[in-house]
Amino acid sequence: MTHLPGVYDPLTAALAVRAGFAAAHLSGAAVSALRLGLPDLGYLHGTHIASVAATVTPALGVVPLLADADTGYGNAPHAVWTARRYAAAGVAGLHLEDQVSPKRCGHLAGKELLDAGLAAAKIRAVAEAGTGLVVVARTDAYTVTGLDDAIDRALRYAHAGADAVFVEGVTGVDDLAAVHAALPDMPLVVNRSEAGPAAFVADATLAELGVRFVLHPVAPLLAALEAARAAYAAIAADGHAGAVPRLPWDAFTGLVGQADALALDARYAPEVPA
């Protein structure tokens, strides 16, 4: 079982690699907030995700990135176009959900579900597009039409070619067990987002229930924003941020590769005539 922390720029990607993670996640909510200053309510497009992913994947190196593909940003051909843009940006996998486009954040009321057959066709189109991406099918049915419909949809999406299924909102042991019983050979994805209730089930138990990926989409972002808030408050109050924990400057320059850049600059500096 693999934990995927949220990353959203080259430096957070580098920190995730240094922490030893085997994979990372790029959240649509994080990109919408940081790129547009807007909530996760359909303002974002796949081009925004692909643009951020193109800056993140080089910093991740061989660590694969799973990216939020929302609803595919339209119908099946639109979803295929999105998948191809993601693959070109170096993304390793995406998760595609079955809300009506434009969608609402998965933790808000008022969600509308796409017809299950149409959603399965969209999954099939992306799975057959030849991009090489891992396709995670997400259903938001659990909080709209209940567990039975969520399981039925997950089965449809698995048959359509999904590599894993993500039943959004299911975190409890009993409901996870029901999903796993219905799809015993299908890897499951769970979401540990601060936007919703988090059931911190032990990793060993999750693994027994078929969970292979645990997403932490915004925890690093919220931690960074809290740290920035504290720094701004300290500067406003005291004229300096001396009391606020900060990354040492040498660690920062190490993350951005300053020593390597200076060495490269020196290596190719023009020769000065004697």
UniProtKB/TrEMBL annotation:
Name of the protein described by the UniProt record: Carboxyvinyl-carboxyphosphonate phosphorylmutase
Position of the signal peptide: none
InterPro entries in UniProt: ICL/PEPM (IPR039556), Isocitrate_lyase_ph_CS (IPR018523), Pyrv/PenolPyrv_kinase-like_dom (IPR015813), Pyrv_kinase-like_dom_sf (IPR040442)
Gene Ontology terms, MF aspect: oxo-acid-lyase activity
Origin species: Dactylosporangium siamense
PANTHER family per the UniProt record, alphabetical: CARBOXYVINYL-CARBOXYPHOSPHONATE PHOSPHORYLMUTASE, CHLOROPLASTIC, PHOSPHOENOLPYRUVATE CARBOXYLASE
Gene3D superfamilies, per the entry: Phosphoenolpyruvate-binding domains
Pfam families for this protein: PEP_mutase
PROSITE patterns listed in its UniProt record: ISOCITRATE_LYASE
Lineage top rank: taxon: Bacteria
